Records
---
Amino acid sequence: MMLLELSPKINDFFIILFSILIEGIPFILFGAFLSALVEIYFSEERVQKILPKNRFMRFSSMVMMGNIIPVCECGNVPFARRLISKGIKPYFVLTFLLAAPVFNPIVIASTIAAFPNNYEIVFFRLLFTFIIAVSLGYIFMLFSSRDMLIDKLIEQRRQKIKEKNHKRHKHGFFSIIHKEFIEMTAIFLFGATIASIIQIVVPKELIFQFTQNEWIAILAMILLAFVVSICSNVDAFFALAYSQIFPTSAILAFLVFGPMIDIKAIPMFKTIFKWKPLLIIIALIALLTFFLSYLYFLFT
Amino acid sequence: MKIIIQKIIVLLSIFVMAKLLYTNELSLLIHPRYFWLIYSSIAVLTVTLIFNRETHSHLKNYFAQAMLLLAMTMGLIIDLKPLSSAGQQQTSYENLSDTNQIIRSKYATSFQLNTAGMSLDELVSLISIDPEPTKYIDKPVVVSGFYFETADGSPMIARHVISCCAADARLIGLWLKEPLDLQLDTWIEVQGTLDLIENDGFRGVAINTTEFDLIDIPKNPYVVN
């Protein structure tokens, strides 16, 4: 077969793009599978019944859900959308979205594997993620829970309530997997493309210029996590590589911020939240990550 | 019609992953540790394709679907080459000296000074653990990698290191005392001895090249960490 040959820069772009895409596809597929499972086998009443009534307990259960549903930041969006369609309030879903990529056995195991003699990193990664995910949930619950969702999801929810009364044609399990997989992969592709372009234009090595002091190092690692857009299942190995050069507080910032939000995740989050709340979410995550990492530096 | 487009996208995704596995281009994209994920995805997608009996689709975002179709088609027809050094060409000597630290821990337990049998990444790792350059003077080396020059003209024999996928690739390498008359990214095997190099206040180890040969790009061009 005659294959297309490309110039080095274009080739590099495709290498980075496909590496993010190929690494993400298995997890998106897994998320789509779980989403289909919930849609078919868990009725709204059942979902509401499983979750605790007490608010703090419900937030905490959202954080812990990642342990039962080990999805990273690529797989959690289809599942989160399904939760919303089952009537779970968006601020609870937000907490799940932010915490699930860290609170899951695969990520915890890979963090321990990457930092075998440093349980502090594992502990603080979990603690900071818990604090940020639950705080953001609370903030949106108190201030603007009504305006968070995009119109399409609200419409779907209305449709769903209507459908309860009239029995209608139901989608099959595999059909839902296909639909979720294609929709999410297409959006993921968009985010991955932007992340790849930025990587080609701005070399990662420039990051090494920002190690002069703690707070600049923390900011630099937050920025790196945002740009590199790698999966939370493996980001600990990536962070390990920088641990010789960057202080622990900055490594921690990378491990806390990266799984919650990065360039490739923004278009995916946009399938749930409107722009304004989404930008507030990103800003708050960055602010809290910085603040907590800096506290870690001050007190250790 | 819509359902056919959907099924074509799924089918193309399977083909792209199978092609990447078959041509070994997958090793240019992700760490071999994660290959099983791709095998599993191919299997799961194939199952969903066989059992999805739906005859019509409610998916509406045509633009996104078109982009996905385009990306998957590109994945099929592009002949991917290893990551080049183009992304690093603005970096300086100082930046890259730092990058070498990233595989520092790799050989921390097998500290030795028998440099002759060591690969490029082993040497880089060794030197970053024990950076005193004078220890290495006149030690013989034979290493392979690609030829690279920083923005300030410092020549290097280099390789990319990945910990997860090509998106996190970083450059590591050993400085060469003299530039070679080569295109960047040309794969070579360099023979020579180690020597002290001083560059704007930085002291480091560099190779005094006695001989170099052009070599083919290896099957697994990245160092996996």
---
Amino acid sequence: MDLIFDGILQAFRLLFTLDREVLGIAWLSLKVSGLATLISLVLGIGLGTLIALTSFPGRKVLVSLVNTGMGLPPVVVGLFVSILLWRNGPLGFLELLYTPSAIVIAQSVIATPIVMGITIAAMQNLPANLRLQILALGATRTQLVWMLIKEARLPLMAGVMAGFGGVISEVGASIMVGGNVKGYTRVLTTATVMETGRGNFDIAIALSVILLLFCFLINYLLTLIQQRERPR
Amino acid sequence: MTTPAQVLELSGLTVRRGGAAILDIPSFSLGENDFVSLIGPNGAGKTTLLLAIMGLVEAGKGCSLSYRGTPVDSAAAQLAFRRRIAMVLQEPLLFDATVYENVASGLKIRGVGGQELKERVYAYLERFKLAEMAKRSARKLSGGEARRVSLARAFAVEPELIFFDEPFANLDPPTRQSLTDDMDRVIRERGIAAILVTHDQSEALRLSNRVVVLNGGSIVQDGTPAAVMNAPVNEFVANFVGMETILEGVVLVNREQQMTLKVGDLELDAVGEQAPGEQAYCCIRPENVTVSIDPPYSSSARNVFKARIVETASLGPLLRLRLDCGFPLTSYVTRESFAKLGLVQGGTVFASFKASSVHPITKR
Amino acid sequence: MNRILKLATGLMTCLMLTLLILSPAGAAPAQKNLILATTTSTQDSGLLDVLVPMFEKQTGYFVKTISVGSGQAMKMGEKGEADVLLVHSPEAEKTFMAQGFGVNRRLVMHNDFLILGPANDPAKIRGLKTAAEAFKKIAQAGALFLSRGDNSGTHAKEKGLWKAAGIAPEGQKWFQQTGLGMGETLNVAAEKHGYLLADRGTYLALNKKRHLGLEILVAGEPKLLNIYHVIEVNPAKWPKVNHAGARAFGDFMVAPATQGIVGSFGTKEFGAPLFFPDAGKKPESLGL
């Protein structure tokens, strides 16, 4: 009990004294996962909208694949991204392995199907005739797509946050492609694993508290969004 | 071939879905100030026709469309043409934004901005009594308010043509009435052509100068409301419009809603609010018309006419009689009374109906 | 739809470019980056947190320390995915060198392995002179033993000791493999009151932070020494490796100043050093 209590106490001390290392790790996590989410937002919403608004043979199979991808295990992604980014691998010339960019890439791969799947669902949940109504208002195709995205913005935001929540709390891919290099690719989750192994429970708890805080904020926003309704 | 009076001319329109033709319209045109009521059963192709005109469903080869004599034959021309039209669908389909933003949406699509946008949006907000709720979220509107916003949004782009696809379905009668009045008023003020898909015959009579009946993707009848209602071209139209008798008349006197109208050479008693001199359609439902061999002395019916039986037709347990009493009139009788009265086609009877059975609709 | 496609492609290209610009590999010369594959024990003890910043400051290299087991570290070297290794698995290292994957293997330091166990010592091994005797008694008693099982240097050492004792523990009920790093395995052993083989540095560092309830039962045999070598990955096999950086890191590790720090690391905190500097010595001098 002492251990947990002391750990929590020390954790808050680290938080309130703005411990540089802890804050640095938290900030890197935010940056990396935020950028990954941004990328998955553009790719996921773009491709998701494209799939939702067009019909082509094999569309159902593709949508099922995307939905499967929503649960892509991070370690699997980590493994494949590592193989691609190895020095002597196909993308080795980019020298991206063990860099924050590598984590961004892996996390984008994890988050994109999540955002994409939710985008497809959100687009299909819009009233069927809304597309006709927008075109009847004189919209071009581009204006149509833009307005539909705007209409689905709440569920899309939920998708983006689900993606962010997924990547900021994953550890498998980050440690594999990032390498947990101190001050460089050490993010909240990988640092927590390492500090626990080292027996630095106070730091581990402090990091967990920050991670929990992020997750709580995300879920709070999600709840706010989900409780809104569409107009008639 | 183009006559200047035609706003819209369409020919050779076919639309296929899953191999079957769902719309086949050799020609259709819309004149200046035409207000067309488009009627027909579900699946007749009414909505598809509107969408086809707007280029929102793919038409088969050989379709040509011209607007005021200029062919609409390219993607650019089609977009420009679509931007001359506004369409109000069955559901309000508002955007998740404020009332102001909703009314502004069509203008913004057309690139209108700044002060001009604001002025035009407010003009239409006021016209549709929405100025007070401009900042309100569209999510917080009642059904009637939402439809009012969707009307304002359609009219705000100042269209040259406007289409309505059963715009006020599922609303309570007073709301429906008030919205219909607003819609009608603005259409007349702007002097634009309109097409209204409706299931309500009295609405069609009251608003339009032309009724087009669509069935199975084809136009079966196209004429004035009275012509379509009184002289259906075939059994389908007859059954669809319900064989209500519709007569055109002029109000002679109106004393506390008890009024007399002149229909041809004859006079009809009716109950209504139209003022003397006003033109009105008189609608009489066949189940309210009784027939007898002798004049009905003790009846409360104010309207009694001597009539000839032009045609009898079976409607299951009922027979439908088409009578001629100086104007066409339809009546239903049971088979039993038909036999008891010894009625025959070509025979003479007295047709009677109460003043309150005559439903007058003001004619524009 | 074409326009949407174009838009999507355009955006994707933009993002990829942003990503490349953001990546430090694009900003700094490639040679600046040095991948050091090492064992969890060097990282978990905190030694590298002291040495790596010093090295970076002295040389300007940027070290990416990837801390894995010795086995995986050497695998990375075999594939040319690491530039320099700091490992402690002498037998495997010899094979690695013989196959030509590494060059310039240099002795850096040692510490020693300890056989730890719960204070009540159910297998009665306290004070035994050799690991072989202790392992035999543990097997006889069927007392819980926790193995790293992760192909690390410690795991390799442990396997060698079992072999020397003439016991095949795998599959036995009392023998459990954690598959985790040294620190985590120590935590598991503490929770489950088991025996284990651990390196002194990690044990002292961890026990200082949290009393593990594990005691040193057998220690001091030359066979229990834990010897670290630095190996440069052979640039002839993998032209892409940063050999200059690897050489610089090797030189740094055996430099007298560094060796001094290695020798004093942990003294202040634990009262005794965690590592003993051995640069320049022959392995035989350690009693092997």
---
Amino acid sequence: MEEKYLVCEDSLEGIFTGIYEAYALREGHEHVHIQIGEEDNYRLFAVYLHISPDTVKTGKVARTLLERLGESVYHGLCRAAASCYPDKGEAVYKAVVDAITQGSGRHVMENLRNPYVQRAFELARYTANEAHFETEFIRFQELEQGILFSRIGPKNNVIPFIMPHFADRLCPENFMIYDENRELFGVHPAKEEWYLVSAQGDFIPEQLKWSVKEEGYQELFKAFHETIGVKERENRRLQRQMCAYRYQDYMVEFQKK
Amino acid sequence: MEVRISPQMSVMEKLKILGAAAKYDVSCSSSGSSRQNDGQGIGNTVAAGLCHSFAADGRCVSLLKILFTNECIYDCRYCLNRCSNDVPRASFTPDEVCELTMEFYRRNYIEGLFLSSGILYSPNYTMELICETVHKLRTVHRFQGYIHVKAIPGADPLLIQRAGYLADRMSVNLEMATAEGLKEMAPNKHRRNILKPMRQIQNGITENKHELTLYKHAPHFCEAGQSTQMVIGALPESDYQIMSVAENLYDKFSLKRVYYSAFVNVNEDKDLPALAGGPPLLREHRLYQADWLLRFYDFKVDELLAADRPNFNTAIDPKADWAVRHLELFPVEINRADYRLLLRIPGVGVKSARRIVSARRFGSLTFEDLKKIGVVLKRALYFITCNGRMMYPTKIEENYIVRNLTYQNQMGKGEKLPFMTDGTIYQQMSLFS
């Protein structure tokens, strides 16, 4: 039997539409694969089908997964789908097959003997960990208009997972988080629902103007951060291990003057 | 009474002095309380806590950890702020603390406030200042983030109760493991005075739990429990004494955390140990490992240490040490052993034990699966079987296993310590530099 590759867009919508189409083929799942983005190295004797994301189909898949697998598995699959690795489509698809067709259901993420579930679990964990680090290490800067602005450069698409945390915490604030790798904004107007926006045109964060007091507080925090370390216990290796350089690049206390 | 400090000192100078004065207090966690924003102000708390930065010593910066003032009437020998020391003194005003907390919090620099203080005039006066500050932060600024305050030993129980209703966590430092030690080190403090507020807070938390079951909206009292701290290595106490005290605190005072602080001789006091090799970090590390075994692995102190073996093995960690002394229980069959026994295998932690228990329902596990699950096989392989087989043919013999575990250490591949014990760093040899 020939292998079929469903070529999907790199987004949650893309992957869910891919899963919908894979089931619609009704050819079993052994020889059907989901691939994210264009293939550079086509296989011989394989059929490539291009799938364009579809809101209705995505909604159907999402509803089914939520109903049949429960919220925590569903969120796990979404996290895996937000990963930066291209094999995520296949992993999420085959994990869904394991859950729905092979019957592990709500316990699918525990079936770590299945290599696809293992991979989906791993990817979900990676995204969750990065989202967790970003909730800790994000630094907001107050702009002239009193808006809080933060720039991050995560490997995975974490903004959808960190916005709820900040929307609750900073409920009375206007704030936005900018993912410079994906040119994506998470925007939260004070006391309203948050939403995502793609950056239009050239957005240059350096052009934003800080409020008058912003620099003062940055200096205060830098001073605090410096004094709080115990000299006799200095351990830069441990510091780097707990807070990697790629986060430090965006944090005020690690910026040289 | 007027605060004696000259008010013209800038907030920056105060922050430097009072941040530096608070840094020897170890506790910095923001865990244990989970609260959503009520829409009226800023802030929430997360049950697991969040670390917002890491200082040069690799310890987390979660809370704005400051003293209200470093003026102190006491003369504790280990403390930088003792009254006989000639150090610059400063005091915050409640408004300054509130402003710093709010502005740092908005920028996601911190998870909340940790407010401690030297004893200004009297314990009551100091406790009142702390209460006033925290009250202002909670009511005027409507701050809903995490607050950790010290209960000052000797302060009026009513003041401590008031602070408890405003804070998430309170702590009273035990300082020394033994009452005699405390007397020697801190002539103005008495163990009785330390345990009294600790008991009061414990009772407060228990009563509050009853109230909360009856009245859902009753105010919370120290939702995140209480913690304490002991200084390690200033006096010749054994690990056994220290761990027994910790176990008692967990069992009898229902503490959330006991912190251990490797002694740093800040005052160069001639009667205190000079510690040429730096603070006793390895010892502190072993105590924390054992502390985790008490809290999450169902161990008892008497299993780990005994009167004739009062200190931890420096070469291997307490869990592996226990395991090699109980080889009659091993090897353990991964596919059949119960959760409690899985937890006792070196190389298997709480998470991997849970994952094993849930994954083996779908079929038996192999070594390859265990690796994926997160078991540290190079440590576990001496103690486990999968489907009746060991990973490699190994001897189940104490000396052999210890040799292998420590040999890995010598190669720099074994137990990962957060620091180098002898200052050496193992590096790849390069022929071209």
---
Amino acid sequence: MIEFRNVTKRFPDGTVAVDAFDLVIPSRKTTVFVGSSGCGKTTLLRMINRMVEPTGGTVAIDGEDVASKQAVALRRSIGYVMQNSGLMPHFTVAENIATVPRLTGRTRRAARARALELMDVVGLDTAMADRYPSQLSGGQQQRVGVARGLASDPNILLMDEPFGAVDPIVRAELQRELIRLQRDLDKTVVFVTHDVDEAFLLGDQVAILAKGARRLQFGSPSEITEQPADDFVAAFIGAERGKRALRVKQTPHGPVLVDAEGRTQGVLVEGGA
Amino acid sequence: MEWVTGNLDLIGSLTLDHLRQSVIAIAAGFALSLPLGWVAWRYRLLRGWVITVTGLLYTIPSLALLMILPVVAGYPATSETNLVIALTIYAVAIMVRAVTDGLDAVDPAVRRSATAVGYGDARRFWAVDLPLAGPVILAGLRVTAVSTISLATVGILVGVTNLGYLFTNGLQRRIIPEVLAGIVAVALVALLIDLLLMLAGRALMPWARAEAPRRSSTAAEAAA
């Protein structure tokens, strides 16, 4: 469980990135922060592993204030995956994945064994173990990034727009993979994105944020779609358009659902769950 | 050519002297430039000062430096130490800037990523910052090495013997092949050291070669 209690972050230049933010993030669920760029969502994420120190309030993991923990040890105990993979260009794939185990004192051999095991987990061919990141495609690099985040088997995985820089097809593939992984691994995932569809696809809980990390709504994707807190949220999630605004159309073969443009999006199945 | 074949022993021993003096100066200059370059990179306020002052060292005329240093430091002008220290000063003048530029060239996102996964500051410097600054530092080191080897010949003017001897002796005795032999020997020494540095760079930084050229082929693989 990660708790934000009245957390504020004011940068030295006076901008307030986060203003009195409160939230409890449940364990073993995927929680997504979604909002436009500059809304403070990444700052929130970085306060969990002390990459950014709050200027007010506390961030606590399982009731313990992160400020009371040693920053370097804290970061090693939390997985971190970022945009553009953030891989070390001078480490091979296996060395990159083994970074944290090596930092925490595992032997080279044990760390490499762990790296190869994780390559399997994230769907990478182990033949790539000795390549450098620049020799991989964007999607493969991102998988290495996820494997590195998982290497020390952390309870918490922080993901900062990890799929933001890959093309839509690869992104969809990585998203499916993350859902599969999360089903097996059961981590506390905190995921930051500006893409509402991604947020609703991955999140058990979604926090919709406005400038200053002001929380507009927090709930499951279904709750938010069924009952947007206000017009802004409704507009932000696109409740009036696309595949979130469907109406029933009767056809000779039964009812189907069509969107605002009249395109059929699916078949209405009676009596389903 | 006759002169050269008759004096191979002399050329050989002068070459060894030359190598010893240059290599010590290059190594010492490199070792001193790392902390100085780091300070200039790390502390913005000191940066202008460190870069300018060390850069200005290069403007001191070499002959003047070789004559002033012994007076200030109290060793004989003809000692090898005198030449080695002067060459070290010139090496520092070039290398500090290369170290600072190299550290500057490290992608801040990679640095942030290293911190995020749990590198402490010192460990990050040795494992991430310094290796990634490597290609730029190596480029500076190669320039320094060649320049030091060529500059070392000036030592003969204050009585430090090395390949420079072939120039002065050849000119005084009007033996042109001796002068030419000197030029060729200096060039060969410089090429040899440059080659060794390049090979060392390849061995220590295999990733640097993997970076650029493979990109197009991986893009093709990804598309396939």
